[in-house]
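Ticket #4471: complex job returned nothing on first submit. Input attached below:
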Amino acid sequence: MNNIIYALKTSWKASPSRVILEFIVRLLYRLYNVYHTVFLLGYVFNAIENDGNVYYLFLLVGISIILMVAYDYLAAWYYNAYKPYVDQDVFREYNMLIYKKAAEVDLECYENPEFYNKYTKTLNEMAYRFESVLSDAVETAVDILMNSYLFAVIFQLDVFAVAICFVPLFIKYIIGKKLNTERFKLFTDNVEHNRRKDYIKRTVYLKDYSKEIRTSNIFSLLNEKFKTASYEIMRNIQKYGVKIAVLDFFNTSLVVIFTYFIAILYASYRALVAQTLSIGDYIILVNAVSRLSALLVGFVDKILRFNENSKYISNIRDFIDLKSKMPSGKDHISGNLPIRIEFKNVYYTYPGQVKPCLDNINLSVGAGEKIAIVGLNGAGKTTLVKLLMRLYDVSEGEILINGTNIKDYDKNEYRAIFSTVFQDFRIFAATVAENVLLDTVGKKDNEIDDALSNSGIYQTLIEKCGEHFRDKVLTKEFDNEGLVLSGGEFQKIAIARAFIKRGGVAVLDEPSSALDPIAEKEMFEKLLSACKDKTVIFISHRLSAAALADRIYVMDNGRIAEHGTHEQLMGLKGIYYKMYVKQNKRFSNSGDSVDEEEQFSLVE
Amino acid sequence: MVIRLMKKSNSVLSNNLFMLKEVIGVIPLYVIGTFCLTIARAIVNAYVNVYLIKYVVDAIQFKAQYQDILVSVFWAAAAFLLHKLLESGFINILAPKMTQKLNYSMQMSLFCKAREIDIEKYDQPQFYNDFILSMQNADAKAIDVVDTINTLIYNLTSISAMVAIIASIDTIGLVFALINVTFAYFINIKTAKPTIKRNWSLYRQGGSANMYDEFSIFLSMLKKFG
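Support reply: We reran it on our side without changes. The output follows.
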């Protein structure tokens, strides 16, 4: 019941006028239906049988037509003009509930397939279920009114006929409930397979995957997975289908047998054998019994549907009520303060894994200090940054910012102190300015220009798009004239984000992977100069860039293996030294645009 | 004008026939089963809802034997139950499996087609809207076509059954029915156009539907009146 009330409250909040109009339109429809099938027909038959007044008959038919036209006009206006228009707002309101939550949930949830299934189920079903609850609730209210009225009419004609109306009610309740349960089971068992199929359908047609699909054998693999998902769905249909078919048969046929065939036999008996009904009353009785039964069955149907909808709405509520496993603290923090960072005995293990990804990390970064984190792939560098930003919480140990555990800070305020550029950055189908600010654009043209200039893309944008480049839409997703840049150029736009945001800490997770060494060096120099007062943490595979940092931490297998300045680490002749020598050798052997001398000059 | 309309009708017909042929090629049993059950439903409905009522009212009016009513109701109920049994089995077991098969088969051939498309096409939003989205929903549209033809078959069978029943009672009644059908046909055609236009414009632009609304209201009112 709570779930239903929740859905109704949401619908009412979205548009009260729509709820009221829905009620009026459906009430009028039911009223007209009962009037037409029960009274008008009964009156006509009685008039024919008893040689009634033709003038009154024509008048009644004329009035009926006027009433029908008036109702139809109202219904047509409601369903064609009003509802589709208001629905835009209503569905936006419903979806915002989910989108807001999706933006809030812990990043960890996205690594959990069960979460994905629930999320997909919620998104797919939400608008339909809320709508279904609203229309069922309105119809239930209308049905109660109509049932009471028809009940009184039948009671007047024949008390026993009332009993006929109630039999299908029990059949429907018992069988219908079982049927809904089986259908829900089938639906739930298919969610994962349908999600897999949807994923493949999306992937095959998306541009992002088009190159791999054309140049590798992934296409066959996707086809195979699509086939397996289809097969699994068919297996589930086989598993539940027979039971559902049998229940569906009894659910529909037994109800019709009682509401229609038994009603006809009973009314005919009274009219023909007992001779206690006229033909007109026979019509009224049969139609009223069948209408009341239908309404009662519909009533039970709605209760069952409430039951069914409640299961889905429960998912929606579970999702919306999902509490973060990382509760927000209450302390305030400002990005304008100098930021000191300390990791104390930090361990982190990803859910479902046994081996810790970070193993007893201890490090400290002074306010305004520039540190680099280097290491081989899978060493735990990115995880360390994610823990720092509280995208995940540590499994053991603590991270302190200015001496306070980061869990004590307000989560949103805390995350706002970071200017971040991730390795797997995303460019949105929005304007250049919006992509740099990652916010709605105010009058910040100078700041945007400076940021783009520092990241080294300003001149390119001017050349390609002229003075109004800030309003140019990136990608061709929604605009034929959209600007498509190279991977390195897009990366520079992403890097500009680190220049524009005035947080106290700049975090760059391999921001320069698509840049050539010269552009990378320039970018780092500018960044370090622009972030003079900021604490900067950057991850880089290129040790020439790492050498620009005040201190370098070398990670290996989830641990900090070495740390110190470039010179100190070279003197140690450990992992860093080996990596550095190998990297230099590769550059000097490659014969690329950067020779050995240049490499060393970059380091120096 | 007439030629344009004929060309348009031809393209509508050929598009629908194309889809129907695709479906028949993959799941012929689905199409045959759906159409047969629909014809049976139309006949059973006409028998149970119209002929049976007429028979019972006549029996009461002309004081026939109650046993006659019992027998006719028994046969009507038997026909109804048999149809319902077959329909439940078809809708809940066979049809969902067959539509999965159709989905698999159509998507597989469309996946291959998508792989052949030049990558530069992806940079054209119009192309993406028109083709990619259509490809993703191709199987659903194919089933829609079968459903539409199915509805047409149901209406035609029902009309034939009704005509037979009305003709057996009073041929003048057929004139009223004919006027009604003709009126409803033209109103339906007129109503469908703005609705399709509106849905298409919403699909393409996500815009408001208001410009067509007043006309739709008026026409759907006339249609009901008809």
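Chain B is about 90% helix and 0% strand. Closing as resolved unless it happens again.
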